[in-house]
């Protein structure tokens, strides 16, 4: 950019803004895109960093001495506390953008010492993602009133297909099927949470039996609400939590650790619902808010001493989401080696159309159909889990009470004041999910640890009718670990 502005308050929080310009010779227009990042560092007055090195993977790498790197600028930040620094660049720098990569923007900020956030710790449990997006036609023009299009549910997070976390250049987690992880978390949240907190992330529950509807007259209330929010290319302002393992535990991340969060976008055909295919999502603004914690010097010294004797250990509820393809026409399926090694503490399962899973404007990727499921169990060697397999009947008899009750018992909601916003009658109309607790004392939701064991789990599934289409079985697995 031609001008950079940095403000360094007492908390050492830095707001940094960059932008790029795209010129069109045909239309003689200039489009400016901006990306905001919030970064912490120690100021020069505290004996810390005097420069910020700004890297971004949206530009091509270029030579820096005898190495190459995607360095955008080196910005001096010599200052005293509470100073506001304004830097003007009379001669802007131009770098070629990386082709076919603009939908995945990753900006890394490092101090000149290479340290993360100085003496501050990070409270990752309070990490917030703020997005402002709009829907346009594929040629970039605004949509008009006759155009019927709406985003899928919980767009703040389901817009993304993968979330990876890197600490000090080492990837510690990479969540494939990220959209499904977020949707499972949201769907199984209490009704009060869905109707308050999650609405800030554009969560409006789809009406059972109308989840695939894209015409206003036939659509459910969730689709209509999201349509009214985005019609005429109005800006959709969203904020909420990211769903990642380090953010689901209460321990602080220690200081001097570089944290990088990378989000890969889903296809527009996955994230949008419409009878037409002439639409796309445009990200106008993205911010990540991370809470910094200033700890006592005695704690810093104690942790430094402890780290000299061994690595840091953090209790994690690690989540893995797998997808298994079930071919059209099949009626009995065994999936061997579904889980090898550590046995998960809990599994949650649901089935969606493979067409929707791969991205299709006219199919909702979160329509969890029953597909006339008639038998399901896990095989742990010669042992079946549960000991009496689930054997629902989704015909006129509506005999699926054990499957429905598994959500309450195996998710730890039974005898607690935590509901699940799925009624018995709604369960078979797009909300068919099953849960299995695999802990020895059936307390996957408890606060205590269970003995880790290794095994080879297989899935045995049968249907009363042959599958009418290729189906993806989505399996949400939770592990209780110390990492």
Gap between N and C termini: 40 Å
> How many individual helices?
8
What class, by secondary structure content? Answer: mainly beta
Shape estimate: globular
Low-confidence stretches: 1-13, 20-47
- Biggest sheet features: 4 strands, antiparallel
Number of strands: 25
Q: How would you state the average pLDDT, rounded?
A: 83
The share of residues in helices is: 10-25%
Q: What Rg, in angstroms, do the CA atoms define?
A: 25 Å
Oligomer classification: single chain
**Estimated share of beta-strand residues:** 35-45%
Strand order of the largest sheet: 18-25-20-23
InterPro entries: RNR_small_fam (IPR000358)
GO molecular function: ribonucleoside-diphosphate reductase activity, thioredoxin disulfide as acceptor
Description:
It is a single chain. By secondary structure, this protein is mainly beta. Helix content is 12%, strand content 41%. The protein contains eight helices and 25 strands. Strand 12 and strand 13 form a beta hairpin. Residues 1-13 and 20-47 have low confidence and may be disordered.
In short:
The protein has 483 residues and is mainly β. The protein has helices at residues 155-158, 178-187, 191-194, 221-230, 268-271, 297-307, 354-358, 401-409, and strands at 3-7, 13-24, 29-40, 51-56, 62-64, 67-69, 71-76, 84-88, 107-111, 120-137, 149-151, 160-167, 170-175, 236-241, 259-265, 272-274, 279-294, 315-326, 332-342, 346-353, 373-380, 383-390, 433-437, 454-463, 471-482.
